[in-house]
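Worked Example 4.2. Consider the chain below.
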Amino acid sequence: MRLVKLFSLSTSLAGLAAQPILMEQGMKIGGTGMAVFLCSVGGFFTFVTPILLHLVTKKYVTELHYNQATDEYIATTISLILLKIKTKFRPSDVTVPEVPGMFTSFLVKKRPLFVDPALFDDPEHYVRIMGYDKPIDFKLNLKHESEQIQRKKINVLF
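Applying the procedure from the previous section yields the following structure tokens:
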């Protein structure tokens, strides 16, 4: 992931360096209109490509470490300018959305993260983070329904 972003940023820098050449050649070929068109198209791809790539990959966890002493995980993601962003969390901080968004495995303190389950050396950590080791909640609302039945019985008696 880091290499893809590095390649994108380097091609964007090359695009910035090519702007004066595009302007000069555009002026020779078709005048001011052609120069503006070439610089607009080149500038669009120079700036938009790294931003779109970052929007897609900002949730991707490149490293995940477990600290057994503190029972914390440290997830590492990459910023737009290739800096490592570390997020510390415990399994209790994780919420798994019922309908996950695009490139979202789970939320850590309302921050979406995407992990590839195949990259875990120990699958037990993935199971623990995702909450698969907890009892299944089928969301049948049985407790809520039994409370409503009890209230109806009380209302009928009075």
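The first helix runs from residue 2 to 57. The chain has three helices and six strands. Compare this with Example 4.1 before moving on.
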